[in-house]
Amino acid sequence: MLVDAQVHIWGADSPARPWPPGGAHAAHRPEAAGAAETLRVLDAAGVRRAVIVPPSWEGDRNDLALDAAARHPDRFAVMGRIPLRGPSAGRRLATWRDQPGMLGIRLTMHKDPWRTAFRQGELHWLWAAANDAALPVMVYAPGMTCLLGDVARQYPGLRLVVDHLGLPLGRTGAEAFADLTELLAIARNPNVAVKASAVPCHSGRDFPFTDTHLPLRQIFEAFGPKRMFWGSDWTRLPCSYQENVTLFTEELPFLSGADLHAVMGGAVLGWLGWP
């Protein structure tokens, strides 16, 4: 079973459902991406399931993602957003998975206020609450991988996923993987996994994106097949969805057999507890 570890769906900015200021600038494209279009993309590539990650440009909303999961429970599940409001928000996590289709939480820490709060050590309430509720957490925190390592050691029962391999937006080739040593070092923590999503966005070459092959192999060797998850983030890919699939299924000789099956879907289902 092929499982995409990250897709976005969102609705249009409208008076009835307004985005926060700056959302339009951050969106992957002007047109909204809905569940129906996403299913057509998945089906064309033979991808059976996808993890919906609500996008930051809509604000802290999970409504469309949860609706998609409710309509298509055999195809979608959700890693939801939570507002940064301190311990009072953390108390919501005790019943977070009572929401049908919800698997855990996703944090984007490349922008404020999350970035500053993380760097200043103000998120212990969140890590503790997620740990107590046995919720997996996906985190995009480029340039702060070492801090994630600190969290992993402090909360060894907390399942963390480093989104997009921790690569900074807009960086390609060797520049994108400049902090690879820090990512490889965090692999010593068994409660940390990596999401190899949007990889073509960080290549300076056309398909098959050969400048990403060596770092992907190093990451695979560090984390292993049970802690490395393929994903697309398809609405910002610079290539076709099928090429992003084929990069992993046909162009990386170190991935084959059971290891390939794990990276392409089996491992993320187990990590997130998606039966």
How do the helices and strands line up, and which of them pair or pack?
Blueprint: E1 3-7, H1 23-26, H2 35-44, E2 49-52, H3 63-71, E3 76-80, H4 87-90, E4 102-108, H5 114-119, H6 124-132, E5 137-140, H7 145-154, E6 160-162, H8 173-176, H9 180-186, E7 192-197, H10 213-223, E8 228-231, H11 241-250, H12 257-272
Parallel strand pairs: 1-2, 2-3, 3-4, 4-5, 5-6, 6-7, 7-8
Helix pairs in contact: 7-9, 9-10
Description:
By secondary structure, the protein is an alpha/beta fold. It has one domain: Alpha-Beta Barrel (TIM Barrel), CATH 3.20.20. It is 36% helix and 14% strand. The protein has twelve helices and eight strands. An eight-stranded parallel β-sheet has the order 1-2-3-4-5-6-7-8. Strand 7, helix 10 and strand 8 form a beta-alpha-beta unit. The longest helix has 16 residues. The two termini are 12 Å apart. The model has no long low-confidence stretch (mean pLDDT 96).
